[in-house]
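Q: Protein A?
A:
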Amino acid sequence: PDATAIYFPTKRRDAQGLLEYVQVSYRELDERSDRIAAGLHAIGIERGHRAALMVKPSPDLFALTFAMFKAGVVPVMIDPGLGIAGLKASIARAKPSAFIGIPAAHAARVVLGWGRATIQKLVSVGGLGLGGHTLARVEQLGAARLRAGERPTPTRGDEIAAILFTSGSTGPAKGVVYRHSTFVSQVAAIRDMFGIEPGEIDLPTFPLFALFDPALGMTTVLPDMDSTKPAQVIPANVIEPIQRFGVTTMFGSPALLDTVGRYGELHGTKLPSLRRVIAAGAPLPAPTIRRWHAMLDARADVFPPYGATESLPVACLPSRTIVGETWARTELGAGVCVGGPVPAIDVRIIRITDDPIPRWSSDLELPDGEIGEIAVRGPMVTEAYFDDEANTGKAKIFEGERVWHRMGDLGWRDDRGRIWFCGRKTHRVEPEQGAMMASVCVENVFDTHADVRRTALVGPRVGGRVTPALCVELEPGCTRAWSTIEAELRELAARHDRERGELELARIAHYLHYDDRRGFPVDIRHNAKIGRETLCAWAQTRL
């Protein structure tokens, strides 16, 4: 109970220039969340009520989240990076009856009219309350209730625990319904997959993943960074706490790991305490993996688990296996191997269609080796989107009382039962002639070029026909002429077709240098998913 649960960075520095941290013990977190849980009931935020939760990564966020779980109040968590329109639409979809947030969030709520039709109860985390209750007052009321013996009834596994909104990277954000049993299954799967032991220390750079730490018995060290802009992290603000606290686990997006990895390579950084680095949000490039391997102990590894907000984790393959066994095939166009399914998950590859599939049948399945859509079933798989029958119908397949989730990803299964990720289904390019082209399969062939940082396959229309085009972002500092690089990429495509042929890369008619200094457009949450829809529209203007 007296072990540290959270180290939270302040803006102060001690005499040695080191950042000062606020410490919160497990006992303090448990007791404070008890008080808040009882206090929420005291002000009329009851079991089953939905409450928008807009609080920055902090001890307040931890205490509030676990208090809401204890009280049976459903937190609605929406990524602030969705923008004004996205936030308003998501809140309107979730219909919360309460709003718990920092003063800036309350000010935006008032000015922009968020949840005006449904929100009745307000809690301000910091500030003066803005017409509602302060969090401190909620705690006071809760403490009085606990002294009187009034404690919330424990929640059940089948009750809704939270509504987590997707990042909106491939369309409007959707509210994923999590039950308490879903979270319990996720915690067990994550613990078993990575061999996490109580007493370990985690540095999570994505707020929602930080909330798993107390359930796993880990100490959380919150980094000094803007979690909404992981690609722009100051590397020293990640490296310093890892070395200072002996961090054993770190979570980061591929964009953050790329930024820190390049810094570490330049400065010869070593991080011997780390046992595992967990990456999620997009496939992890081999150069980034190799940079991190150089910083880690030989027994440590980088793990890019495959999954989504709707189902996590699904599969995982250690990166030392990736670079040692599977990456050579990735560079030849096979896709990215994400490993075998975790024990509790059933994975099938089904035929590609954009239509809803109401009922499961065996004729949906494709044989090993054939690319289709990845579908999953298991205790970590969510059942629906909140108040969204249309998107639920597109993503879920019912088999009696069981539910399959369509990942929206293309992939195939090899003869060892491993899944290979080939890109998003919506990002496939289907020209008039030849087979469907899967984005990730094609792009990894061209990403082998020394001057290329990343590529994106898109399908703009030329003369009314879908025409494959490759958008290219070059490595920072590259000064070679684009005409020379383009010629080399075309020769790379021709050589691949001569030697292998199945991708038919000669169908790529246009190679377009994307020279915006900010790089490719990416998702707001992880800064790692390439915005191919935006790039396709840009390519359309160039042709």
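Q: Protein B?
A:
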Amino acid sequence: MCKSSLLSKLVSFTYTLSMPLIVWAGVMLSLPLASCSMTKGFDQYDRFCIIQSTETPDNEYWSHYLYTHFSHRCDLPLLVTERKEPNSSSLLVKINYNPSLGRKYMVDISHDEIQLSAGRKEVMLWLCYQFISKVAEVDSRFRATDLPPASIELENMSGEFPFEFRGIASPGNSNADMLGITATHSEDYNWALWGHNLNKIIKRASPSLKGLDIYAEVNGKRDTAQLCFSSDRLYKIIEDYIADQWGEGELNAPERFTIMPMDNKHACTCELCTKVGNTNTNASPAVTNMIVKLANRFPKQMFFTSAYATTRKRPDRTLPENVGVLISAMDLPMVYDFKATAEFEDFNASIEAWQKLTPYVYIWEYARNFDDYLTPYPCLNILQQRIQYYREIGVKGIFINGSEEKYATFEDMQTATLQALLINPELDIAQYTRAYLQRFYPQSATIIGDYYIGLEDKVKEQSVALPFYGGIEEELTYINMSDFEAFRTTLDKQAKQIQGEERSRLNKMLTALSFTPLEVMRLKDNPVSLDKAAEQMEILSGYESFADMQESKEALGSLETYIEQWNDDAQNATHNPLQGTTIKANDKELDAQCGKLTDGRMGFYTDYHTCWVVHKGQWQLTLPPHKSGSTILNLSLLVAPAWHIWLPQQIRLTQGDRVIATWATPSTPTDKSILYRQFVEIDISSADKNAPITLQMSPVNLERATIACDEIIVY
């Protein structure tokens, strides 16, 4: 394994900004074998001689590097040497570091000789470990159980890295020592300023530079939730941060800085921003001006704008050569044949238009249902097709947003496969995932592989659209619960016969898989078995043993809170005379959901997907006559500002022209961390028990204001 001190130098890879990326059609092109080949299998050689192809400082460094790390993976003395042995039982391994190759790599075999060629540090480091991993597959004298399986074959072949940036945000891509080995990047290690993190710089800035004018003016008032990109103070804060922390930069070795607004839809419309072209929905003019100013100030550094939210509109000018763009793929449905979707034409046109402004177009991709990390998410075939498309049109970099630091079911296998796909988009996914499982789950590889590949095949063949933010109802479009339970049962039985690291990995996987049956039990038409629920909760409570499995989703997903809600009696509605009756709505979309309002199922306040009726705009419902003599109407409502869900501004009950009762919200919270269920009780004792009641709920006057209700009860 590489030492951190060495890899910290190697993962700071060199990128040439002056040369456009040449997309080589044969990214992983296997060429015909030469007339000469190896005379025996790897395990039949008694020496592996690591030498330089020619004597240069680079070849000396890399040949010694391969010797050091290859020899550490066997216990036999002199099996690996740094000199040529004069006997026919030696395999000669030559290192050829040739900068003219750029991001290309080559494997050449002739008789008892292999030459490994590459032109960049990142490629040579990756190729060395590909060689080690591949040899270990066929020669038991070497160990590579900690390495992902190789994606190359040791035969005459050549290829080229298709993207200059290959980032993945997931636990399996967070080990600094492994980044160089897999030739993958991390926003933590390979990006000086990432995403919506300008606020972190502001917090660390000198107090003398801070002032209200760094914040956006929205509707005539300063809004500390957004920034003003025409502010000289803000520019100075960013300039000082870059100069102090990163310096002027090195030619052909820039740091990357993203200059993005905060993650909301507000744009500054102060006098300065309006003058340069900002509107209340478009911050691109001011953001672009600041980025260009920074790019001119630091010509050896690299700056990125974004095509997202208020910066979706493109600049009207060509950008400096050290400015690129991150384009979000969130609007492109996660479905296999994505080019057939209605959204593809606009997405493709956007990329083409941006490429006229800058050659440095990066794509921000996604690889998770961010509202459920624990239910399987078979996205590899879809992402492969998208990665192939990005390569074909000349995209320079890809960042794949996964579960970041949080555990997701099958994440380790998926991340390893994505690491390989970003280098070889033609990878055989089924073959590679099985190879990964065989290395890290050797005794359960077939069980896991058969089930997971079956999910991938179903999503591909049936054109299933995977959700980016979805609940269990959407996930059941590709999860067959009979198959799921059979898989869990078989895997659990096998796990009980396994020891060591594989058993630990399986325990973690089986703990996560207990989440899905609990979610299914919460659905409207499924009877709740308290015994079965208790059994699954006992398994799920094992999450406490895993530091990265404390939450089930991107936000507000505490598993501790989830289990508490299952154990809370409030999940079961009290006796309700309205239960099973029909409530009608004057809106077609709302009417289709009204059955949830009287089904006796309470939703969880941490999840607006299941049991809740969520609807924007005005609600108007018709409740049947309450002949039971009930005098109180109880509404179970959700308060979740992070999801733009608030209490209604007003609730109004009428019968004909007569107003029975009204209710007004006492306040509207703005803190996004607030999350709770609110029961609103309204006196209906004056209502005519033989006439229907019209219930109207008006949303608060806020952007994207939504009302969520899971149960209407009378008593």
